[in-house]
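Case study 2.
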Amino acid sequence: MLDKIHVSPNGEFTDSGGKQIQLRGVNLDPTVKYPSVPHNTSHSPLFQSFFDDAERVSFVNHPMHLNEVEQHIQNLKDLGYNAIRYPFTWESLEHGGPGVYDYEYIDYTIKVLKKIYEVGGIYVYLDPHQDVWSRFTGGSGAPLWTLYCAGFKPQNFGETEAAILQNTYIDPDSKEEKRPYPKMLWPTNYYRLAAQTMLTLFFGGREFAPKCIINGQNIQNYLQEKFINAVMTLYSQIIEKAPELFAGNCVIGLETMNEPSTGYFTDFDLSQIPKDRKLRKGTTPTAFQSFQLGEGMAVTVDVYDISVIGPRKTGTTRIDPNGRSAWLSKFERDKIDDLYNWERSDKWEAGVCIWRLHEVWKKEPKDQPILKKPKFFANDPSSGATIDMRFFINNLFLNFYQRYRERFRDIDKESFLFLQPPTLQQPPEIKNTALIDDKTVYACHFYDGMSLMFKSWNRIYNVDTLGILRGRYKNPIFSLVLGEANIRKCLRRQLAEMKQEGKDFLGQRVPVFFTEIGMPFDMDDKKAYKNGDFSSQLAAMDALGYALEGSNLSFSLWCYCTENSHKWGDSWNNEDFSIWSKDDVSGNQAATQFDVKLQNDSDVVSSFSTIPHGHISEVSLEEKKSAPFLNGIRALHAILRPYPLKVSGQFKNAEFDLTGKEYKLMIDSNVEDSGSNHTLIYLPKIHFPMGQTSIKTTSGTFLYDPDKQILRWSHETGIQTITLNKVSESSEPASGDPEGCKVM
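Prediction:
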């Protein structure tokens, strides 16, 4: 049984004894974004069966086959990790149609969770994952029928550029790319007709699409109800069929929808590209141009690329759908409605753009389009308030959160609810309200903008991503950060600022958890896969680790992908974030000797002993053979880091110098009972080999368990610091220290 997680008055995770703990691990894993049968990744050729067979897919064995669970979970434990964010999609649960749940997949998920529990030492929280609404709109998440529900014809999204799918770049015969799929093109689907409309309807259909009534409900209510029902069906089944997962503190909670987005809200003029939209890549239609394209009309649109100081217009291009429409004709929609037993309002005309239906624009004679209401989404119809990002989060998003939360608390009053607002935005202002309880966690995401978009680690300059989004700079050039040391400090400041925002808006007691954070591994045009030089990835991951450990932040790296390959990355839109790859495995995997357990600190009883030391260079083949837990892990030295497992008192600061092999930890040990004054530190041998490690501290005695790689530091009260250094191999042990550890 895992120790139960509590929350301190200042919003830190603690164990049952009140010691601060940190939850760190990975997202396991992005294979859940696409079905296992048929195995339709985003680089599978786009055949008609992609749509025709959407009801009959299966996600069983994603993220992995049951017989592989122990191996991969052990990999994570060997990294010192103790937590997993477990994504699943709405489509995986309800692809068969509204209210038709895939209980085979639900049972499979429960079996995976049980196996994780059997391995032990890992906490799990569940994530209803979506990206740009659905894999049929270039991402992941919602089932195909939700698009039919809105009246869309996804088969024509390509011609109308209502969405751009990587699948359309793949040759059906060779299954290779017909032309290169641009880096990070997929997020632009957030600003194309299909995803933008669906997210607008999901969060604001009642006010802004009142004619869209289906089975007596506005489409907003209908979609939200179906989504929440599907998620809670899975969660209820886990409670019913595997109560031991909760009793044993393995499953600790549920997150809200992954990376919710605003749709057309915050788009103040539909005839213009919003000035604050930093993501402009490839064809970049305005909302009004997207409406026209959706009805099959030809439009000339701007083309952009990304530069260091923001988007840069590179030209224009003509898009001509040749009359093909992204909307179902009456005949097509009637067939769909009959299939799903849908009855629509008489006011909901088929074959017409929803926003033309609501008189946002119109066609004059000779099909000349006119934008009648360019500011249609700019103001709340009820109050007249401007719908900026803060309004969206504190109203439209919060209304969904309240509904989601009520359903969750009806079935689980004890587990954590992870509240996730739109990415890199401030959370809703609900401090001291009934929407916050002592089991609320602020879930935020962070990606470094430059590293993400350019897939490189620039040691010379970067930008303050969060500062740009907070409008801190009149000109993006002022956001430049020069030099790697300053870039690392800037990343640390950004994460600390996001943590403080959580406290300011949600309350001091709410823990902050970075449920997604990571760096791409296919940097520098995949150079590392050819020459084995992972220096860019090591530096980037080390910078993230440095930023996280400065505030003792809990996190789940994006990601650990069981199907990762050098060619296709995480098998989703050319993303390649996995810390493990099957293409980086050497030799045979075997059971490992290292195991981090947090259940019982009294197990840490042995002292330092001299063992074969690791290397500070790249991992050698000999190391992989002698320590199989390294097998397949990329940028290992930056990922495998020392950290405080349990802090007796309050965490103050920590730094790990990867190059100099030095770890510093400062705490305020305010525990009066001297018998409880001990802090546990995970101390990986690869950085601090026994016989070559010195310790300098303000007070204390030490015990070390070389199997679990845990240092137990018994110390006095007050401000306490400990510094650990790797010393040269030839250094002699301190006098009177037969175990080979220098204590100074």
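Residues 614 and 686 are 5 Å apart (CA to CA).
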